[in-house]
């Protein structure tokens, strides 16, 4: 099958069977048999024949991308195995959301560059979701649920949101005993409408809709909400990767001992994604191995909190 794919791509690039046969150093009849067999296996024609130059059918055009991706993946895998003892080098382009990238990807990049002195990294931090079919990015970090089935995704960590408040706030306002009591507290909320998926949402409460919490501060920047919570202005519902340090330092307190609302099927997570055929696979895999070791399992920001006396 792989040889058939090589012949198919060669014919497309050459424009006819005879030129492809010369480039492959085989007989024209061999090329014809390969294409005929491939079309028979797929159950549809890949070329419209009868013209001076072969023209791809719609099925052929669609199949061309898949064939090129498979061959590229195989070439990258062979290169990786043949050069596994060589010093990795080249440029790797990584895109990540701003806050997560600054806190967790940038430190991993620094240690990656120290480990591989001949590698270069172009780290792009932005909250804009990059279209990998347009932008030349080798690896992108996505947080949430994946919607693009064409991407190759590696799950790095679960996405857990925790209800937290500062000790100063709890001393003044009291600690809510149940999730339902959050509606009676000063809550720091995201300003975008509708409320993003997962925010202030807990299984078994409010029929799956966000709790109708409110407060004096709304903001579209999660780090600003975090700073306000640490200052004692109210309760937040933020990702554990964002609040982990504050919890361990005692600047925030997690209000509910269990991970209410996160242990659900198909829960959102943190992924590294790439587009087959558009990334430097060997370099991407090298960084994936490094970042997974850097984050750990469970991730370092979800390490157990010290027990309170």
Describe, in plain words, how this protein is organized in 3D:
- Belongs to the LysR transcriptional regulatory family.
- InterPro entries: LysR-type_TF_proteobact-type (IPR058163), LysR_HTH_N (IPR000847), LysR_subst-bd (IPR005119), WH-like_DNA-bd_sf (IPR036388), WH_DNA-bd_sf (IPR036390).
- It is built from 9 helices and 12 strands.
- The chain is α/β, with parallel strands linked by helices.
- The chain folds into 3 domains: 2-82, Winged helix-like DNA-binding domain superfamily/Winged helix DNA-binding domain (Arc Repressor Mutant, subunit A), CATH 1.10.10; 90-159 and 268-302, Periplasmic binding protein-like II (D-Maltodextrin-Binding Protein, domain 2, 3-Layer(aba) Sandwich); 161-254, D-Maltodextrin-Binding Protein, domain 2.
- 27% of the residues are buried.
Question: Secondary-structure map with pairings?
Answer:
Layout lengths: L1 H13 L2 H8 L3 H15 L4 E2 L6 E2 L1 H25 L7 E7 L1 H18 L3 E7 L13 E6 L7 E7 L2 E5 L1 H7 L15 E2 L27 E2 L2 H9 L5 E4 H10 L3 E2 L14 E6 L6 H15 L14
Parallel strand pairs: 3-4, 3-5, 8-9
Antiparallel strand pairs: 1-2, 5-12, 6-12, 7-10, 7-11
Helix pairs in contact: 1-2, 1-3, 1-4, 2-3, 5-9
Q: What can be said about this structure in brief?
A:
The chain has 309 residues and is an alpha/beta fold. It has helices at 2-14, 17-24, 28-42, 58-82, 98-115, 167-173, 222-230, 240-249, 281-295, and strands at residues 47-48, 55-56, 90-96, 119-125, 139-144, 152-158, 161-165, 189-190, 218-219, 236-239, 253-254, 269-274. The protein has three domains: 2-82, Arc Repressor Mutant, subunit A (Orthogonal Bundle); 90-159 and 268-302, 3-Layer(aba) Sandwich (D-Maltodextrin-Binding Protein, domain 2), CATH 3.40.190.10; 161-254, Periplasmic binding protein-like II (D-Maltodextrin-Binding Protein, domain 2), CATH 3.40.190.
